[in-house]
Amino acid sequence: MSFITTDVDLAVLALKEGTLVAIPTETVYGLAAHAKNEEAIKKIYQLKNRPLDHPVIMHVAENCDLGQWLSFIPDYAQRLMDHFWPGPLTLVMKTKPGTVSPLITGGQDTVAIRCPKHPIAQTILNQLGAPLVAPSANPFGKISPTTAKHVQQSFKHEELLIVDGGRCSVGIESTIISAVDPNHYQLLRAGLIGEKELQGVGASKGDCSNSTLKVPGKLERHYQPEKPLYCFEHLDALSSFCKQKTATVYVISFTKLPLANPQLAYQLPKEPTEAAFELYYQLRQADESNACCIAMELPPEEPCWQALRERLVKASYR
Ligand code: TXA
Ligand code: MG
Question: Model-level pTM?
Answer without folding.
Answer: 0.95
